[in-house]
């Protein structure tokens, strides 16, 4: 039986309105679990509450209600040691690699900093060795160590951000729209990298996105959010094959989703008709 690594129960967050109108219920009684080894997609349009959930999960926002449990302990009320463990084992990859990487730091320092924070015992040489190892895992090399973020393309910067997240050997990766700031041609490369990392490192992934075509390529299970509430939850096959909620059907209708089975059937039909 699979083991639950992260559990969110009854999460709620209301903000005072930015324009002095009605308060905004950004997250409304959201519950879900993330099992070890699985990739769960959190999807919904802009404003559906995805970022607020992520921010509550990693402690950047304090929820009004609910609990977040990681590997058996209550994250929001954890002691120092448990909080440190959570910060090491649960890593984030953000949407925008242009904003998330400090432009004044070299690749060696950007990635190595995470080792200092989480595993301070290593020597400078030991850190460099591990940084090179993880750069090679994401398709970069030791030659990139002295370079600055501005010397890289968007896709390469996201590889650096992924290396930074992976260097402390996390168990869970939370990816908040990790490819939506990238060109479509580069998106596929980064998705393939994430897929390979997940397989090779046995990672558990929470993948947040508004693009259902991207989510389909990666996720085993999906949670569809609307106005801060979960309106649909199911396996990839269920949600894409037979969406139960009107809102999910509308989301699916709005994006061209590649469907290999339908493409094969169309090709067969074409060949047979010739
Ligand atoms: N600090 C804040 N103050 C007031 N309202 C906020 C705040 N943060 C978020 N909201 C509101 O909460 C709702 C959910 O926002 P959130 O950013 O979580 O959605 P999202 O699905 O991540 O959208 P996006 O994809 O655009 O980031 C929105 O209506 C947003 O305007």
TrEMBL record:
Q: Does the keyword Transport apply?
A: yes
Which key words are in the record?
Answer: ATP-binding, Nucleotide-binding, Transport
Ranges for domain ABC transporter come to 6-252
What the entry lists under CDD domains is as follows: ABC_NikE_OppD_transporters
Task: Give the UniProt record's GO annotations in the biological process aspect.
Answer: peptide transport; transmembrane transport
| Molecular function as annotated in GO | ATP binding; ATP hydrolysis activity
The Swiss-Prot or TrEMBL record describes its family as follows: Belongs to the ABC transporter superfamily.
Name of the protein this chain belongs to: ABC transporter domain-containing protein
Species of provenance: Streptosporangium carneum
């Amino acid at each position: 039986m699979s083991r639950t690594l992260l559990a969110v129960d009854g999460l709620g967050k209301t903000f005072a309105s930015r324009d002095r109108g009605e308060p905004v219920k950004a997250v409304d009684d959201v519950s879900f679990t993330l099992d070890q080894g699985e990739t769960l997609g959190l999807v919904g349009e802009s404003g559906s509450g995805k970022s607020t959930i992520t921010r509550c999960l990693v402690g950047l926002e304090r929820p009004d209600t609910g609990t977040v449990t990681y590997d058996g302990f209550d994250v929001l009320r954890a002691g120092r040691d448990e909080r440190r463990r959570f910060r090491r084992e649960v890593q984030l990859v953000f949407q925008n690699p242009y904003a998330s990487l400090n432009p004044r730091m070299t690749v060696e320092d950007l990635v190595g900093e995470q080792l200092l924070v989480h595993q301070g015992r290593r020597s400078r040489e030991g850190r460099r060795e591990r940084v090179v190892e993880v750069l090679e895992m994401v398709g970069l090399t030791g030659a990139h160590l002295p370079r600055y973020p501005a010397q890289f393309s968007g896709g390469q910067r996201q590889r650096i951000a992924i290396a930074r997240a992976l260097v402390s050997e996390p168990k869970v990766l939370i990816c908040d729209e990790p490819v939506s700031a990238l060109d479509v041609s580069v998106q596929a490369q980064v998705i393939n990298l994430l897929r390979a990392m997940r397989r090779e490192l046995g990672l558990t992934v929470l993948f947040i996105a508004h693009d259902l075509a991207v989510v389909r390529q990666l996720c085993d299970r999906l949670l569809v959010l609307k106005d801060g509430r979960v309106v649909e939850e199911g396996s990839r096959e269920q949600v894409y094959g037979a969406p139960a909620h009107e809102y999910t059907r509308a989301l699916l209708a709005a994006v061209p989703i590649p469907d290999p089975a339908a493409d094969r059937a169309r090709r067969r039909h074409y060949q047979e008709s010739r």
